[in-house]
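Tutorial, part two.
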Amino acid sequence: MTEQRDMATPEETLAATPVETLAAPPAETSVETPAATSAAISVETPVETSTEAMVATSAETPAAIPEPTSAETLAATPVETPAATSAETPAAIPEPTSAESLAAMPAETPAATLAAITAETPAVIPPMPEAPPLVPVPQAPVRVRKERRVLRGILRWTAAVVVFVAAGAGTAYGITQMKRTDVPGLATASDGRWDYPEIVMPPLPSGSPGPFAADNKANSHYADLRALVLPAPKGAKADASLRGTDGWLPTKTFLAQYADADDRKELGQKLTDDGLRHITSRGWTTQDGTHTRIYLLQFDTAIAADELFSPGLISYDSPVYALTGAPATSYNDAIKTEILAKNVKASAYTEDKPYGAEEVRQAYLSAGDTLALVVQSHKGVAKAVPFEQTLTLQSQLLD
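Running the prediction step on this input gives:
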């Protein structure tokens, strides 16, 4: 504030300067006045510039602010007149400013001018450098869904494999448990054999040997004779007339199947003489109409049973006593010892043609102290296969 009070304004300085000094020719000096600077600017730029334009230019272009000039300095400094300037530069020169004009101009101090320039000219702030474009950061691929899909696929394939394995195992188990005749593609055409239950040997009394054991010289059957009769095949209808009493059949019922009365009397006497002990029997009719009868006769000794078997009941080409319905028969050489149990003998016969109402097949078996008579009959023709099958299974029970 002290410096501003000591400094004289330009208007005061010009007012104190004599008019003669302003009209006098300027002396050569190395210091150019503002008027000379304006003339130089006019020479380089041939455009008329008014005082208001110069002021605006000064305001827009930040120039060096001259130090305040005292009265003594202005008196010692020659000022170029408009005439001298026009002599050097043919360009248009603004009219000289009179004392009254200068007095009318607003008085501005250098500090005020600096403040105005600072207020009008904002501080130049260098622009911020442009930020580089944002590069998207690659994100890790979301694997949750993919992993779930893979997991679901694994589970599906695992389930499929388990199902296939279970189905294959079940099929294999089912096939292995089936009989060959029940497997499609492996079954053979039925040859007429019946479906008999599994053959189970009856228990022997404690300490008793089998009929053909080495220590059983009499070849006696110690097992219950009723348990040695072949059971009926599946689906067959039992013959109630052969059940007897407690499984024991009267001798009279057995003899009734022979056709001739004299034969029945003679055979009855032989049975008594040879020591007949028991007779048991079983009969059935299968679905195809075949009627089967089996009789077991047990004697005191195997010798007596063997003598009755031959020549008491059989001869070379026919049985000794004819059965009802089969007056004439022939020896059936198809029944060989190969189809029978080891210790069982057999003699089979088939009815001769022409048959009566039924064809009759019959066979006598001999096994130690027991004889067996197997008879099958069928309307028209009695099949050979079930007859042979029945003989084989019955021989196994007697062996």
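The chain has two domains: 2-120, 225-398. In part three we will examine how such features are distributed along the chain.
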